[in-house]
Amino acid sequence: MRRFWSVLAALATLSLTNCGYNAIQTNDEQSSRSWSEVVNQYQRRADLVPNLVNSVKGFAHRKKMCCWGHQRRAKVGSIQATPEVLNDPAAFQKFTAARANSPARCRACWS
Hints:
By secondary structure, this protein is mostly helical. The protein has helices at 2-17, 21-78, 83-87, 89-101. It is rod-shaped.
């Protein structure tokens, strides 16, 4: 009987040594997989920041160009074709150049 218990104890010891290894490996793989998802999300967000910055810069440039176009059209509207301008070749050249360079509408605006 003593021999039976010692064999049973030896078998129990051998069977229990490998019991938790698979669970440890499974948990390790699951935590690695979850952490890689977190890293991927952070990387994706970090990649979006430069795109957002460029979008804001583009919008600011468009707004600046829109205001610049409005100012140019306002200057053209302020030049009047008076008889003095028509008789003075330099002033008439300035008037025609301003009219030729004037945009029909502001291309930077959405309207």
